[in-house]
Sequence to fold (483 residues):
Amino acid sequence: MRHSVIRSAVAVAILLCAAGIVRAQDSSEKEIERYREMISDPMSNPGYLAVDRGEALWSEKRGTKNVSLEGCDLGMGPGKLEGAFAKLPRYFADSDKVMDLEQRLLWCMQTVQGLDTKDIIARRFSGPGKPSDLEDLVAYIANKSNGMKIDIPLDNPKEQEMAAVGEALFYRRGGVNDFSCSTCHADEGKRIRLQGLPNLSKPGKQPQETMGTWPTYRVSQGALRTMQHRLWDCYRQQRWPVPEYGSDALTALTVFLQKQAAGGEINVPSIKR
Amino acid sequence: MTSTIKLTALAFLAGIAALPVAAGAQTKPKAADPALVDAYIKSTFGKASPEWQQRITPDETLKTCNAYRNDVPPAEAEAITKRELAKVVYPSDGKYLGDWKSGAKIANNGRGGQFSDPPDTVSGGNCYACHQMEQAEVSYGTLGPSLMHYGKDRKYAPEDIKAAYTKIYDSQAVFACSNMPRFGANKVLSEQQIKDLVAFLFDPESPVNK
Fold:
C-alpha cells in the first residue's frame, strides 16, 4: 500500500524533474503545487523513511560513554533541534571551528558519545542494504527546520572567512576540463544536456529554492542525499579529485551557498530527479 | 593643499580602477587571500595523487581567469590568447578533416577525467553537454552556442576549418578565459579525435550539415 503511493509519488517527481526546464513555466505551477503537498506528506515521500531512522538514531545510546546524541549542541543548545539546521554551518566555540551539520554530528559522536566514527564515515553515502547514519540524522534534524528561513550567522570572523573562501572556490577553475562551479552555475536558464542548472552566483530565488530543498530524496539514486553528496557529485562532474568528506572547502562552499540563499524557506526532505 | 589635491587624484584613480570590477560584480566582499584558499584546497583534496594535484594547480592562464572571474581586461586577454595559441600543435600532414562518424561518437561521449572513471578510460569530447550539433540529437546543453549547420554556414571554407581545429585544441587561443575546455592543450583529446570532430562539423555528409 505505502509502496504504491511512493511509486506514484516518484513517478510525478520524475515527470517534474525530467522537465527541469519547466521551472519557470506558469502552466506547471499547479503541478508544482501538487508536488509541494506531496513532498511534505510522510506517506508519499520515501525521504521520510530516513527521517524516521534518524529520529531513532538521535536518541539511541551509543559509544564508550553509552549516551545518546541528545547532549549534542547544534548551535541552539544541547538537544535543541528546532531551527538548528536553518542556521548551519556556523561557528562553534568548543571546537573553534565553523561546521556544517555533518561535521558537527561527527564531532558530537566522537566527543559526546565516544563513538568511533570510522564505520560511520565509511557509510557516509548509503547504498542498497547499507544505510547511512549521517544521511538519516541529517534528514531528521533538517526536517525540524521546515517552514523556517535560511539565516546563517556571519558575525564571527571565522564565519566571514568561510564565506569569502567559499566564494573564491566557487570561481576557482581546474581539472582537465578547466571547470569551476561557476562554469555550470553562474548564468540564467542554462542547461547541461537536458538538466537545468540553477544560477547560484547571485543571491535570491534560485539559491533559495536550491538550498531550501536539501537534503532530498533522489529518485535516480533511490536514496536520501545531503549537500555533502551533492558537492561530491559536482566535483566529480567538475573533473576534480575526490573531496574529503566533511572537510573545510565543502563547508566553505556551503556557507557561501547558504549566504546566497538567505531568507529561503526550508522544506525537506524534498524529492528530486 | 597639495595633499588634498593628491587625495582627490587618488580617489579619482581608485574610482576608475574599481569601475570594471564593480560593473560585473554584485556584492564585492573582501576577497579571500589566495594562500588561504590554497590551504582549504589542500585540506579537502590533499590526499589525491600528485598527478591529480597537478590538475587542480592553476597554470598562468587559469590564475588570471580566476583572479578576474573570467572577465579579463584586454591586455590580459591578449597575453592569454598569445600564450595559448603557442600551445596548439597542428597536424604535420596539414589535414584537418578526419572521420565524421567517429567524430559524432566523440561528441556524444562524456566519459573520462572523473574520479569515478577507470584510469584507462578514453575521454570523449562531451560537446553535447554544451552545444546543439546535429538536429536529431535533442539532448543538448546550452552553455555554448548552437553548432548546427556549422560547416555549411561557413561554406566549408579552409580557414574556418583550421579555426575550428584551433578552437577545439585550445579554446583560449581564440577567446581568453572561455568556459570551453582546452581539449588538446590539456591532453583530453588526441590529434586524431580532434580531426574527427572537425570532420563532424565540416564534412558535407555529416548530419551537422543536413
Remarks:
- Chain B touches chain A through 48 residues (CB under 8 Å).
- The CA atoms of residues 21 and 101 of chain B lie 45 Å apart.
- Chain B is about 45% helix and 0% strand.
- Residues 100-114+122-209 of chain B form a domain with the Cytochrome Bc1 Complex; Chain D, domain 2 fold (CATH 1.10.760.10).
